[in-house]
Amino acid sequence: MFLQEYLSWVVAPEPSRQQIIDAHAHAFFYAVCALVWVTYFYLEWLCKVCGPPIIVTTRVPMQHIIDKMPSARREPCPPIFWTNPHIQFIPWLIQGYVHGYFWPVDFQRLENVTPCGKDRSVLSVYPGFDVQPAILPIIIILPGLRGWSQDCPGIAIVKSWANTKKFRVIVHNRRGHVPEEKLIGGVFHMAGDSDDLSYSIACMRNKFPQHTTAPIFLMGLSLGSALAVTSAGHWDELRRENRNDRYGHPPPENIAGIVLTSAGFDLTKCFNRFPFPYSYIMREALKDHFILKNDEMLREKYGDAAVDHMLKVESLGDFVEGAWRFADCASVEEYFSKYNPVLSLEHFTTPCCLLLSKDDPITVIENGLEISPYPQFKGLSYKQFTQQRTDAMILGILPNTGSHCTFLDGGNFGFMEKLDGLWCLKCWSDTVAIEFANAILEDRGFQYQSEDASEIEQSRWNSSDTLPSERSTNPGTGSRVVSTSSIASSKHS
Known about the structure:
With 493 residues, this protein is an alpha/beta fold. It contains 16 helices and twelve strands. It has helices spanning 2-10, 17-49, 63-66, 89-102, 156-163, 194-207, 224-241, 278-291, 295-302, 304-312, 316-322, 332-339, 366-369, 382-388, 428-443, 485-492; strands at residues 54-57, 108-113, 120-126, 138-142, 168-173, 216-221, 255-261, 352-355, 394-398, 416-419, 422-425, 481-483.
């Protein structure tokens, strides 16, 4: 019986002509659908990567800077299968988790207990001052909404700057942002505080006074861009008015420039424009990271009603707005007046490079194109206001593709590169940021210290006056964990 069934299956009758035609028709249909699908994605990819990005500048001549930034004059070129802005997140996030778990960066940690409260503001330094004593320009990375030194997001950006061998990378961990550390004083800043950043820089320079003349760049990622803008605006305003900040510090000197990646502009609106599921994911992540982790401390200081309100909010925008009481502010109006970056746009004159993709699904480009509701902008959009300024060097680069902070590059076959011993996805925004920093340094006449030189070469940059309040007669030596707050406290007591 089994043999008969087997033979009947092997010696099957010839298919009819109609069956053959039907089979070929189905195969042809699926082949045409596949060809249309591939053609669509190929044309979409070509449309995005061909041609230069939109470049927006103020009326201050900046062509000499742009000429030194070849990557800024071309579009990012992601692999064709990662062109979609939502899909770009997948390899980028996987890379961040893998790097952070298996190959975390060996930072030198500088702990600073802020004068306002007992919470720490931590600087993570790479390479550490004890590992690389040469005077190098400093890039201070300001992480995103929930980011910290080992997830800015990801650590590839740290490796990109370190791979040049020309920069020292410092990640500023805002209050409450380091995952393993709970709040002590009950104050956290999601958007960061410019006086906290200034205090951390002052502590660092007191511990390592030989690096006081090193130029500093701020690089804000996503929400970190808000801190970069508010800090630059606040410090430039303090310099013009010859004032100190609320901790009694003068504004930091030698701030060479700022880079803003995927900035959101108006803090009161941008979070309400996060689409689903990003809004839900980030809202729940913030509740866990800031509220649930510090539940006991926050209830003791602010009461059950305040904490329960934060846990019950149903939108990301409401969570950000409700965080005012946990940021040591008297009202929501004070909170946004201090931390909304668009209110600092008219104040800062520090050279700035903004990188914002037109397909960003999170901090959408409409944030920068809308008419500002604030009277100082006189009915202009933030883009229009920037274009009319004559007192600041601001360069805005708006490519077609890049998603949110990812900016994958390298095409279909060259999208990986080895950075500081670690294989990473190529990132267009990191390349542009490094070119911008090098262009500014070259424009200002900065000269790097020779590898075998014992003294720093003099230049127009480091010949500027150093504030006496930022000098110390006790330089000390670096270690893997350094507490600098005691030095600053004794200086300002």
